[in-house]
Design brief:
Layout: H1 2-17, H2 25-37, H3 40-49, E1 55-60, H4 68-74, E2 78-84, H5 87-99, H6 102-105, E3 109-113, E4 123-128, H7 134-141, E5 145-153, E6 159-162
Parallel strand pairs: 1-2, 1-4, 2-3, 4-5
Antiparallel strand pairs: 5-6
């Protein structure tokens, strides 16, 4: 239910703020929500292998909150921060954190209007779905990673990696 509320909110805001190129409700479900949900099980497996029961996740270039908002809804054990350089996108994520049901979100979603390179808070996992090339993503995000932290990247969230072995775990 919360995922559908988020999808409706994304579509509504998208009419004015151009958060995503996808405008069809069906495509939002398949191209955004299901694609983001595909990362949940591999991310949970990674966190389990690292002994992390509650992890801090950074979603880089979050845009309309993908995958960050979806991960927050699907994974109550995560605290997610979404970062984007575009203020209207960061504002949308902040509004989603306020507007989506508190009992689901639980204050676990934060929005930052910034460049990832400017962040100095370390995260357990840094992820991105449609941000930049893999080399650029890893270079720009490196300061935001705790030592030995995980990194997930893809246009379709297809790779989850341990930064200690540099892209060692494939989803």
């Amino acid at each position: 239910d919360t995922l559908l509320q988020y999808a409706a909110m994304l579509l509504k805001w998208n009419q004015v703020y151009n958060l995503t190129a996808i405008r069809s409700p069906a495509e939002v479900l398949t191209h955004h929500l299901l694609d983001s949900l595909a990362a949940v099980q591999p991310l949970r497996r990674y966190l389990e292998t690292q002994g992390l029961s509650d992890a801090a996740v950074l979603d880089v270039g979050s845009g309309g909150g993908l995958p960050g908002i979806v991960l927050t809804i699907a994974c109550p054990e995560l605290k997610v921060t979404c970062v984007d350089t575009v203020s209207k996108k960061a504002a949308f994520i902040q509004q989603a954190a306020i507007q989506l049901p508190r009992q689901v979100m639980g204050g676990r979603l934060a929005s930052r209007h910034a460049r990832v390179e400017s962040l100095d808070t370390p995260f357990d996992v840094v992820c991105s779905r449609a941000f930049a090339s893999l080399p650029d993503f890893t270079q720009w995000s490196s300061k935001a990673l705790k030592p030995g932290a995980g990194i997930c990247y893809s246009g379709a969230m297809s790779r989850c990696c341990n930064s200690g072995t540099r892209f060692g775990m494939t989803v």
